[in-house]
Amino acid sequence: MPFTFHSHSGQFCRHAKGCLEDVVKSAIAKNMVIIGLSEHVPRSRTKDLYPEESDMTTDDLHTAFQGYVAEARRLREKYTGQIEILIGAETEYITDDTLAELKQLREQYALDYLVGSIHHVSGMPMDFSQESYDQIVQHFGGDRKQMFCRYFDEQLVLLQRLKPEIIGHFDLIRIFHPYDQGVEDPLALAEIRDLASRNIDYAISYGAVFEVNSRAWKKGLRDAYPQRDLLEEILSKGGRITISDDSHGAQDVGMYYDRLLAYLNEMGAHDLHYLHRAESGGSIEARVLRNATKHGFWASNGYAASQ
């Protein structure tokens, strides 16, 4: 019973590829039974446009998001019976106003769920490039401890204000940290680890599901997000997990899932959760799939993951 709740397409995201329908068709071809569509929410300040969006305005982003929801609804109707499609969005937190806009956006489009992600620190883009990451380091005077503290503090605010159903790449702040150059892992420091632990506890308290995101391997990290130190803590506290490919086009659907499932099995994480539309009332609920990572489960369900 494969699934993913974190996906993008080039039709509505400039750094992804292809059209949204191809993402859905790829999921069907790989025997997924549920896919959550989660294009990025629009940004409302011109200064927050990325270089790839230099020919766009913030109004264009909002128009594109409106088009995304309309297309997702069309696809949900078209592929009824072949795959369950949930329509969500991946969050941003740039300023406090961003969160107010997100609440309104969710209500306006009646989104099924949110992937709660942080892509900025102190209003500066973190994961766009090594250069953008380094600019944040410089903003904090080279003090990575302060940078990591700010990330987890802003993440908590997002969790408190929006209560996203899925926690997106919990420790994305690690994406360009130069571990291979002998620079200390800030999360090895008790002060920062305590902040991450605080956020884990809060997310668990309201019933969030943490994604284990295979895209980290594409970025050269040792483990999927969250890295194993934090995943161990989430599991030890009874946190619920799911899997996602964070696909940026049809070519990424199911990316590294064989490796991901082996990793989770190694970690003793056998149960996976998934979002599903309840039969009565149409509300979204999280269900559990027992022993989902054990050897042979996915193969016996006819699933072949892409590498």
Topology overview:
Blueprint: E1 3-4, E2 7-8, H1 20-29, E3 34-37, H2 58-78, E4 84-90, H3 96-109, E5 113-116, E6 120-121, E7 124-125, H4 130-139, H5 144-162, E8 166-167, H6 190-205, E9 209-213, H7 215-218, H8 228-236, E10 240-244, E11 247-248, H9 257-266, E12 272-277, E13 284-289, H10 297-300
Parallel strand pairs: 1-3, 2-11, 3-4, 4-5, 5-8, 8-9, 9-10
Antiparallel strand pairs: 6-7, 12-13
Helix pairs in contact: 5-6
With strands numbered from the N-terminus, the spatial order across the biggest sheet is 1-3-4-5-8-9-10
- Please state the average pLDDT score: 94
CATH class (first level) name: Alpha Beta
**Low-confidence spans:** none
CATH topology: TIM Barrel
CATH 4th-level superfamily:
Metal-dependent hydrolases
- Number of strand segments: 13
Helix coverage percent? 25-40%
- How far apart are the first and last residues' alpha carbons, in Å? 18 Å
- What is the CATH architecture descriptor? Alpha-Beta Barrel
**Main sheet: strands, sense, barrel:** 7 strands, parallel
> Counting H and I runs of at least 4 residues, what is the number of helices?
10
Structural class by secondary-structure content = alpha/beta
Series of H and E elements: EEHEHEHEEEHHEHEHHEEHEEH
Principal-axes geometry comes out as globular
Number of domains: 1
Rg, rounded, reads: 18 Å
Strand content: 15-25%
Pathway: Amino-acid biosynthesis; L-histidine biosynthesis; L-histidine from 5-phospho-alpha-D-ribose 1-diphosphate: step 8/9
Keywords: Amino-acid biosynthesis, Histidine biosynthesis, Hydrolase
Catalytic activity: L-histidinol phosphate + H2O = L-histidinol + phosphate
Protein name: Histidinol-phosphatase
